[in-house]
Amino acid sequence: MSENQPKSSILRKLLREPMTHFVVLALLLFGVYGASSLGGGELIEISQQDIDARIFMQELSSGRELTEEESEQVAAFYIEERILVREAMRLELDNDARIHDMLAQKMRHVLSGGVIQPDEAELRSYYDTNHVRYTSLETVTVDELVFNTTDEPAPGVAAMLAAGEEPEAILALQEGSVSPLPRVNLLDLSYIFDDEFAGEVFAAAMNEWVGPFVSTRGQHWMRVLERTAAELPEFDEIIDRVRLDWIATEEDRLLQIEVDQLWEDYVIVIND
């Protein structure tokens, strides 16, 4: 027992050494290479750096160091992935429209990757040139009065609407409800109702009831309580947004230049 115990202890220590795992992996790859060469199989070369990168990313994702078993699982999954990709290419499964779309999108990112950061002068010039995209739309805050019927209003209600009476007084004569719509723009109202009714609301004077707009809910009447004019924020308030827009625009410009140059490298034949 005394002679076997040190030997087993040394063996366990060796099995825990990372270098031992690297040597075993190298021997396995060498064996795979030899077997594939003898059997005529196709060689797939695996980079240890790629495996280490996968393990590192997995550790970042999990927020902890992987165990040896987990690291081996990551390595095995990566090798399986490479085998599956090679097999898919052998079966020409990459000849698929969805795969082509993903590859083309990937190439667009690669080709447009040389964008540098703009200086303040370039950003200010971009801001001045594209001020329309940063100008907010005019908005209104309105009261929406809805009668629970599509029939003619009760006697006296039409006169109260024409006089701009408060909704509570009108609802005393006509069953319905009232609710505010805060800070809606013309597009919002057009989407909720239609272009014509939205235009009438925006063109109306303050506290003037506009309607009716008939829907399945009944008759809709609106009056404008508050207007907020279109506004262009100061450059310093939206400089981060301008920077992102500038970079996106510059990426598109550089991408188009690269793609135009690639066209010159190919002869395109369209078969009828």
Summarize the structure.
With 272 residues, the chain is of the alpha+beta class.
Structural account:
The chain has a 4-stranded antiparallel beta sheet. Helices cover 57% and strands 13% of the residues. A hairpin with a 2-residue loop joins strand 3 and strand 4. With 272 residues, the protein is an alpha+beta fold. The chain has 3 domains: 4-91, no CATH class; 96-135 and 233-272, no CATH class; 136-228, Chitinase A, domain 3, CATH 3.10.50. Residues 1-5 and 35-40 have low confidence and may be disordered.
Defining traits:
272 residues; alpha+beta; Chitinase A, domain 3; 4-stranded antiparallel beta sheet; 4 strands; 13% strand; disordered N terminus
Which class of the largest domain in CATH terms?
Alpha Beta
Query: Whole-number average pLDDT?
Result: 82
Count of alpha and pi helical runs: 12
The low-confidence runs, each spanning 5 or more residues with pLDDT under 50, are: 1-5, 35-40
Mind telling me which CATH architecture of the largest domain this is? Roll
Write out the strand line-up for the largest beta sheet, numbering strands in chain order. 2-1-4-3
Strand segment tally:
4
Provide the β-strand percentage band.
5-15%
Number of domains: 3
Query: Mind telling me the C-alpha Rg?
Result: 35 Å
- Largest sheet geometry: 4 strands, antiparallel
Helix content: 55-70%
- The CATH topology assignment of the largest domain is Chitinase A, domain 3
What separation lies between the terminal Cα atoms? 84 Å
Q: Which structural class should the secondary elements be placed in?
A: alpha+beta
Spatial shape: elongated
Order of helices and strands: HHHHHHHEHHEHHEEH
